[in-house]
Amino acid sequence: MFTGIIEDLGRVEEAIDTNGGRTMKFSSKFATELSVDDSVCVNGVCQTVIACDATSFTTQLVEETLRKTNFSQTKTGDKVNLERSLTFDQRLDGHVVQGHVDIVGEVLEVVEEESGWLYRVGFPDEYSDYIVGRGSITLNGISLTVAREEKTAFTVAIIPYTHEHTNMHQLQPGDSVNLEFDILGKYVLRYLKNREK
């Protein structure tokens, strides 16, 4: 489990295709604190550490992960948002994030304002019930609040700190982003749909 509060802006050091999957190596300032089998949220995707050293850690991605996330398009040199798993002695500053991507969205528009940025993100129509104005959304692992909602798009407002300390600053219209909808909302919708049967 994660909070969506990014700890580090890492970098893809290697991306090697292997038998339909992928092995990826990421640089991180907290690599020395990791162990094999630890969970790390990378761009919103929960991954298991299979190797680590003083400056980096390695994970393996299977076909299902590549199908459901934007990691099939991620390449060496790309910046990635990193967060270690939640421990019971820390505050939940963001919201409950599982690191289980629901859908890959697309950046439609980036508007720079005086005090920050507005990012408009599109997604498939069948997920429109999962977006709630002023509700939580995870975008590339970042816990954000929906500022505006549409049927197939939503807008988030990004403060300068988040813009600088995550990979939001490199996103442009047309880029894909990993989206995870709020887990509480997903359970409520499932419950209500089952009651209708």
Features:
197 residues; single chain; 6-stranded antiparallel β-barrel; mainly beta; 6-stranded antiparallel beta barrel
SSE map:
Blueprint: E1 8-18, E2 21-27, E3 39-42, E4 45-52, E5 56-61, H1 63-68, E6 79-84, E7 103-112, E8 117-122, E9 136-139, E10 142-149, E11 153-158, H2 160-165, E12 176-181, H3 183-196
Antiparallel strand pairs: 1-2, 1-6, 2-5, 3-4, 3-6, 4-5, 7-8, 7-12, 8-11, 9-10, 9-12, 10-11
Can you give a write-up of this model?
There is one protein chain. The chain is mainly beta. Helix content is 13%, strand content 42%. A six-stranded antiparallel β-barrel has the order 1-2-5-4-3-6. The chain has a six-stranded antiparallel β-barrel with strand order 7-8-11-10-9-12. It is globular. The two termini are 32 Å apart.
Number of helices: 3
Quote the distance from N terminus to C terminus: 32 Å
Computed over alpha carbons, the radius of gyration is 17 Å
Pattern of helices and strands: EEEEEHEEEEEEHEH
Strand elements, count:
12
Structural class, from helix and strand content? Answer: mainly beta
Poorly predicted sequence stretches spanning 5 or more consecutive residues: none
Share of helical residues: 10-25%
Characterize the largest beta sheet: strand count, sense, and whether it forms a barrel.
6 strands, antiparallel, barrel
Mean pLDDT: 95
Percent of residues in beta strands? 35-45%
Please state the overall shape, judged from the principal axes of the Cα atoms. Answer: globular
Strand order of the largest sheet: 1-2-5-4-3-6
How is this structure best summarized?
The chain has 197 residues and is mainly β.
